[in-house]
Amino acid sequence: MSDVNILEVKNLTTSFRTEAGKINAVDSVSFNVKKGKTLGLVGESGCGKSVTALSIMRLLPRPMGTIEKGSVLFHGNDLITLLPDDMRKIRGNRIAMIFQEPMTALNPIQRIGKQLDEMYQLHNPDVKKEITKQRSIEMLMKVGMPDAGKRYDEYPHQLSGGMRQRAMIAMALICEPEILIADEPTTALDVTIQAQILDLIKALQKTTGMSIIFITHDLGVIAEICDDVVVMYAGNIAETGPVEELFAHPEHPYTLGLLSSIPRLENKRKTKLRTIEGMVPSLYELPPGCRFQNRCSFVMDICRAKPPELSQAGDNHLVSCYYVEQRK
Ligand SMILES: Nc1ncnc2c1ncn2[C@@H]1O[C@H](COP(=O)(O)OP(=O)(O)OP(=O)(O)O)[C@@H](O)[C@H]1O
Ligand SMILES: [Mg+2]
Question: Contact at 8 Å (CB) between 144 and 200?
């Protein structure tokens, strides 16, 4: 079962129209999510991780954000072209998302329990109220919420950051989704709570068999919990492959840069990567050729002329780099 793809993202291209012009925040991105496995999306701030997630969920800010091209196959159905009503039946139910900032998902003026109940009832309208309440409290217990029964009646502002994160995870998991998209779910939390939440997500995956798309800045976290990884740079995929393969044989100069800047345990809170010199190019002024050229120590003439394409670097291991290609 491990190699069945539950989600196939193909050539996904998402644009934003702004006053400064139109940009592709995600440009021809393809990857597969395997059943029961965890795929990591990693890259510096602004590389298109959240936009990829929001495109899959069809939650792009309107009207600026548009999916220009590509498909997202879920059980053979293309989510991109689904009718809004059909997408609503999938979102939160079969594919759910947890956000970096819990307050984007939690309603500040509604009790936690009511929010959980409503999420469940939206997709299970025939289940009785008392049963739903029971399920919500059980879910809060499952995600390690202390005093779950009492928290059920509280408002988000009465909870600590870690508890809010747990409440949001409970809300994402209450319908037992087949895919959980976790967008930097632990960045805002302190180290101990981060570790607890990661353990919790792993444990829940073991019991439910769900697939996970895990978004993070931190390759250390990827190594810990992912099976496959996609390294993104300025809206493109720089490198992708199984985690062990990619950590044993990293190829792309950008991946090498990320690996050398894995935060150490003692300063794990500073998860923003900062040791690769130079800056990500503005999507409004992309250079011709490779998007990483201005920061790359191995840059060659061809890198400035035309963009590299992903090519095979090992088993299921793809890299988009002329320097790597030329060495093979
Ligand atoms: N609403 C928007 N309007 C215009 N541009 C946007 C909008 N949202 C995102 N972008 C652009 O899309 C690009 C990708 O953004 P995205 O949020 O996906 O980055 P990210 O990889 O999730 O970064 P971070 O690690 O900081 O969360 C950014 O360059 C950003 O400027
Ligand atoms: Mg993001």
Answer: yes
Nearby residues for ligand 2 (ion, Cβ within 5 Å): 49-50
State whether 225 and 305 are in the same domain: yes
167 and 214 part of one domain: no
Q: pLDDT higher for 275 or 294?
A: 294
Q: What is the mean pLDDT of the chain?
A: 92
Please indicate, yes or no, whether residues 197 and 116 belong to a single structural domain of this protein: no
Alpha-carbon distance of 121 to 180, in angstroms, equals: 19
Query: Angle at the Cα of 102 (from 101 to 106), degrees rounded to 5?
Result: 135
**Could you tell me whether strands 211-216 and 38-42 are parallel, antiparallel, or unpaired per DSSP bridges?**
parallel
Indicate if the pLDDT at residue 212 is higher than 60: yes
CB-ligand 1 contact for 29 (6 Å cutoff): no
| Domain region containing 129 | 109-174
- Determine the pLDDT at residue 104: 78
102 within a domain of the structure (yes/no): no
Above 60 in pLDDT, residue 271? Answer: no
**Edge-to-edge strand order for the sheet containing 21-34?**
21-34, 5-18, 65-74, 77-78
Cβ of 203 closer than 6 Å to ligand 1, yes or no, is no
Q: Which amino acid is at 66?
A: T
The total number of structural domains in the chain stands at: 2
Q: Is the CB of residue 37 below 6 angstroms from any atom belonging to ligand 1?
A: no
Question: Looking at ligand 1, which atom is closest to the CA of residue 100?
Answer: 27
**CA-based radius of gyration for the chain:** 20
Verify that 81 and 137 share a domain, yes or no.
no
